[in-house]
């Protein structure tokens, strides 16, 4: 078996507030890409973000998706909405590392908008505790 490499072009960057759909390995493709499709058709500013610095993300059914940006490209000042599609609870798509957990918690504490689809409400404790305290 030979290894194939691909060149992923750089993506556009938001210049103002936007919606960011977070993609971790194992994310449910339809729960992520259908909302992105609808939002882009409505001419909303929406970007897919890999929850790592690797823009190539593996979906739940094995499809590889090239995210618009990696997590280190995400500027918290540009976040209007954070959207988390579901995945199996054991997957990286619903298990945040500490730095992303801090971004989410800070965004929430400032009154920011967060959407969690299907299994995504299984996000780690700090988010769940705060969601229980404030209903959007």
The helix count comes to 3
The portion of residues forming beta strands comes to 15-25%
Looking at how many chains there are and whether they match, the oligomeric state comes to: single chain
Total E-strand runs? 6
Weakly predicted, low-confidence segments: 131-136
Q: For the largest sheet, list the strands in their spatial order.
A: 2-1-5-6
Helix content: 25-40%
Radius of gyration of CA atoms, rounded to a whole number: 14 Å
Q: Biggest β-sheet: count, sense, barrel?
A: 4 strands, parallel
**Secondary-structure element pattern, one letter each:** EHEEEEHEH
Mean pLDDT: 82
Shape by Cα distribution: globular
Terminal-residue CA separation: 49 Å
Structural class: alpha/beta
Describe the model.
Residues 131-136 have low confidence and may be disordered. The protein has a four-stranded parallel β-sheet, with helices on both faces. The protein has a two-stranded antiparallel ribbon with strand order 3-4. The longest helix has 13 residues, at 29-41. Helix content is 25%, strand content 20%. It is of the alpha/beta class and 136 residues long. The protein contains three helices and six strands; from the N terminus they run E-H-E-E-E-E-H-E-H.
């Amino acid at each position: 078996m030979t290894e194939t490499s691909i060149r992923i072009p750089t993506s556009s960057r938001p210049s103002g507030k936007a919606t960011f759909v977070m993609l971790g390995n194992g994310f449910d493709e339809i729960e992520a890409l259908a909302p992105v499709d609808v939002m882009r058709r409505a001419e909303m500013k929406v970007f897919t973000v890999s929850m790592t610095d690797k823009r190539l993300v593996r979906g739940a059914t094995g499809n590889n998706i090239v995210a618009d940006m990696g997590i280190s490209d995400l500027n918290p000042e540009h976040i209007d909405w954070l959207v988390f599609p579901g995945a199996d609870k054991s997957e990286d798509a619903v298990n945040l590392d500490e730095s992303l957990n801090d971004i989410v918690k800070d965004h929430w504490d400032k009154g920011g908008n967060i959407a969690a689809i299907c299994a995504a409400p299984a996000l780690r404790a700090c988010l769940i505790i705060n969601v229980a305290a404030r209903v959007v």
